[in-house]
Task: inverse folding
């Protein structure tokens, strides 16, 4: 097992981040993964807390559009890619987020913990190895939750999900380049890994995406 998650993070630079919302959230979610971004946002709204840690920040789209609980939200952003952190922090500047560069596969501890909620959206399928190999990411994230806090997110499932032609093409391309590492990822394996660290685990499959949550 390698803890080198850089291949999955390295694809995000200024150019790809400018296209991210259109290509990933607009085109790929609907036509490749059959999970519209509105469903991801609804899942985010359901679980986000006032004090929130987001791991694997993308462009900050979901945090930008979500509905926080009452009160002024406190947002911390964590990612291995400084370009993603900068882009998301700029987009969310009204929230004054704090940023940290971390490798979620290695132990880390962030100031400000514990949090009401921690999100990992479209992160697990970018990590190397099987879901069992990715278990440390979930363990390290869950360690930042307060008692009864919620860990939640979404991940694209592997080949067993029977992708359509477009999805299969992207799966082959992204896995070959190390952008994805999800060929063997299944909803059942995800549920098992989550259950080792969390209680009240829920995994719901929508299209080729698993939406998950659990409480510490």
Result:
């Amino acid at each position: 097992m390698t803890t080198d998650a850089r291949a999955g993070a390295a694809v995000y630079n200024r150019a790809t981040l400018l296209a991210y919302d259109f290509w990933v959230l607009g085109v790929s979610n609907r036509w490749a993964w059959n999970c519209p971004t509105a469903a991801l946002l609804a899942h985010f709204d359901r679980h986000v807390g006032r004090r929130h840690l987001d791991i694997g920040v993308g462009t900050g789209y979901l945090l930008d559009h979500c509905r926080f609980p009452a009160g002024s939200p406190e947002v911390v952003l964590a990612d291995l890619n400084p370009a993603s952190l900068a882009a998301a922090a700029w987009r969310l500047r009204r929230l004054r987020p704090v940023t940290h560069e971390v490798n979620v596969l290695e132990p880390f501890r962030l100031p400000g913990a514990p949090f009401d909620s921690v999100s990992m959206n479209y992160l697990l399928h970018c990590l190397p190895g099987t879901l069992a190999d990715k278990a440390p990411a979930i363990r390290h994230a869950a360690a930042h939750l307060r008692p009864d806090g919620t860990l939640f997110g979404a991940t694209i499932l592997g080949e067993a999900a029977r992708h359509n032609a477009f999805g299969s093409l992207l799966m082959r391309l992204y896995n070959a380049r190390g952008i994805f590492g999800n060929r063997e990822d299944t909803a059942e394996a995800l549920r098992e890994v989550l259950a080792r660290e969390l209680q009240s685990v829920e995994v719901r499959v929508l299209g080729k995406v698993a939406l998950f949550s659990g409480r510490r």
Q: What stands out?
A: The beta strands are 51-55, 74-79, 98-101, 115-121, 145-156, 199-206, 209-215. Residues 6-215 form a domain with the Rossmann fold fold (CATH 3.40.50.150).
